[in-house]
């Protein structure tokens, strides 16, 4: 189906089913790891959800279970291309569209920058025309390889403009700038969340991120690929906690952010690998590989602001979340 006719059929479908929902919400990147959980959460709250995704890293299997729901629509579209949804009223937009794993966002770095500039301008344009509230999924990567620890929202970051991660880090930084400029210039109602490392079911097995790599290697008794000495740290947040934080931010009145959402439980990657080996009863051994350029040495969110402003804090501990994620990867490998 062509983009235009797909858009028209979407508009028609949305038009006829109106009435039985709270809000009409556009989720870009809705077939991705976080996006699919968010779509599900919003549908369960009685909203109509338009899930937009170009399926570069997202997957139809992530949203298969939602397609029976009459309040759910899928639109195969890239936010880099113009989008007109002018026959319906969009109330809220969650802009999650962008590959988020370093391996994936570096495949086509220029396209990653386009998603965060042209794509973001397109989505802000929809928000402006529809007078919709729009939330940007920003990232802890705006802090780069941080010199302040843990990271607070007022830290301005230590980011390379020229390195291999810059397409994402600088892209996400300019996306934040665009959000605040549309807010000042056009009175667009914005929310900006900075997402720290998140994991859980529906991560793509091959997306290259550490939790999915380690779990799949451990389940197959393959070598665990440790980049560097494994002493670098990350703080991992379970997906359910993250979705609750995003939702609370979107629905908080008179509040733009930016705000950190993540789990402050900081661990080394060696610790992560050992836990995963233990939880999977794996025979895997850790092997050491070169550390990718500009790989941040430490990362931990300060979430005081989220606690105070949103009454939010993560509830799922790492052990519980890892077990659920391991169960998920075991179940998909049997399919
Ligand atoms: N990493 C690793 N082995 C892997 C994948 C990643 O040691 O197979 C490391 C990576 O170098 C980084 C950390 O794990 O230090 C987290 O990487 P990820 O790609 O998940 O996200 P990042 O936090 O770097 O954006």
Automatic annotation (TrEMBL):
Residues 26-325 form the NAD(P)-binding domain. GO terms for biological process: D-xylose metabolic process; UDP-D-xylose biosynthetic process. GO terms for molecular function: NAD+ binding; UDP-glucuronate decarboxylase activity. It is found in: Cytoplasm; Golgi apparatus, Golgi stack membrane. Its cofactor is NAD(+). Its EC number is 4.1.1.35. InterPro entries: NAD(P)-bd_dom, NAD(P)-bd_dom_sf, UXS-like. SUPFAM superfamilies: NAD(P)-binding Rossmann-fold domains. It holds the Pfam family GDP_Man_Dehyd. Keywords: Cytoplasm, Decarboxylase, Golgi apparatus, Lyase, Membrane, NAD, Signal-anchor, Transmembrane, Transmembrane helix. Belongs to the NAD(P)-dependent epimerase/dehydratase family. UDP-glucuronic acid decarboxylase subfamily. This is UDP-glucuronate decarboxylase.
